[in-house]
Write a structure and sequence with these properties.
Blueprint (H helix, E strand, L loop, with lengths): L7 E10 L2 E11 L3 E6 L6 H8 L7 E6 L10 H4 E4 L11 H12 L3 H10 L15 H13 L5 E5 L7 H16 L3 E6 L2 H5 L4 E6 L2 E7 H5 L5 H9 L17 H10 L1
Parallel strand pairs: 3-7, 3-8, 5-6, 6-7
Antiparallel strand pairs: 1-2, 1-4, 8-9
The structure holds adenosine-5'-diphosphate and magnesium ion.
The site of magnesium ion (MG) has 3 residues, from helix 1.
């Protein structure tokens, strides 16, 4: 692993799908050595933005760069950026080890690296089990293991806290903080503010594809106030009352579970 410090720079990014503008003139910078929360209600444009950073979705306009280069211009893209999008995208009949070996083969990494990430994510004892038997927490850890195969300097994790209990969130916080301490750039999305407040150093909050606020969490909310209060204060003028409840940013664990159940 090289010790390169890589920022993610999003500049005036816009994405329109037919009639829907998913992301609109969005700009922000994600610094290395920190965990940044990319936050906003369901449908705010988080996944679309992360897919544009990876070159999986073409922007209508604007650009996203990692260490000054577009993803596709990176010398070793999959070894530089590890990404995870969908916690349920495993082949249900594959064991965790086979899942990782498949991805390792695609990235050109040896099977010994599979054993390393299994150990790192404490999945060694369940590596022989088929992923259909995995709990959400185990799936999230297998996702992280997959993203870490290439020992990437940059991690993009789409809703890695979904479905985790408080113990799982505490574990995720410690794990991601350690990765950031090593100088990596860690971006995690979430629609659950209370969950992310414990994990992140910085935040970028979006709504309806536009930036609401970005910066260091402590500077934005102070020592006592919560991220929920900040979000409500910043968006109260654009009345949330005229939205259906599922379109609002979820601010508590119980509400998050409701939303999970509603999918
Ligand atoms: N492939 C697509 N085609 C059409 N609309 C899309 C597509 N992908 C996302 N959208 C729309 O773009 C908006 C943002 O979606 P998304 O990026 O998934 O938000 P989030 O991840 O914050 O929940 C939503 O209105 C969604 O329906
Ligand atoms: Mg999403």
């Amino acid at each position: 692993m090289t010790g390169e410090l890589l920022s993610i720079e999003v500049s005036n990014l816009t994405k329109r799908f037919d009639t829907v503008t998913a992301v609109q003139d969005l700009s922000f910078t994600i610094r290395p050595g920190a965990v940044t929360g990319f936050l906003g209600p369901n449908g705010a444009g988080k996944t679309t933005t992360m897919r544009m950073i990876l070159g999986l979705v073409n922007p209508t306009s604007g650009s996203a760069r990692i260490g000054g280069r577009r993803y596709r211009d990176l010398p070793r893209p999959s070894g530089t950026v590890g990404a995870v999008f969908d916690a349920s995208a495993f082949h249900p009949g594959h064991t965790a080890r086979n899942h990782l070996r498949t991805y390792a083969a695609m990235g050109g990494y040896p099977d010994s690296r599979v054993e390393e990430v299994l150990h790192l994510l404490d999945l060694g004892r369940v590596a022989h089990r088929r992923t259909r038997t995995f709990s959400t927490g185990m799936r999230q850890r297998l996702n992280l293991a997959t993203a870490l195969l290439g020992d990437p300097r940059v991690l993009l994790l789409d809703e890695p806290g979904n479905g985790l209990d408080p113990e799982g969130i505490a574990w995720l916080r410690d794990f991601l903080r350690e990765l950031a301490r090593e100088g990596r750039t860690v971006l995690i999305s979430s629609h659950v503010l209370s969950e992310v407040q414990q994990i992140v150093d910085d935040v970028v909050v979006i709504r309806d594809g536009r930036k609401v606020v970005a910066g260091r969490l402590t500077e934005l909310v102070g020592e006592t106030a919560s991220l929920e209060q900040l979000f409500l204060r910043l968006t109260s003028s654009r009345a949330a009352a005229d939205r259906p409840p599922t379109d609002r940013l979820t601010t508590g664990r119980a509400a998050a579970d409701r939303m999970e159940g509603a999918r």
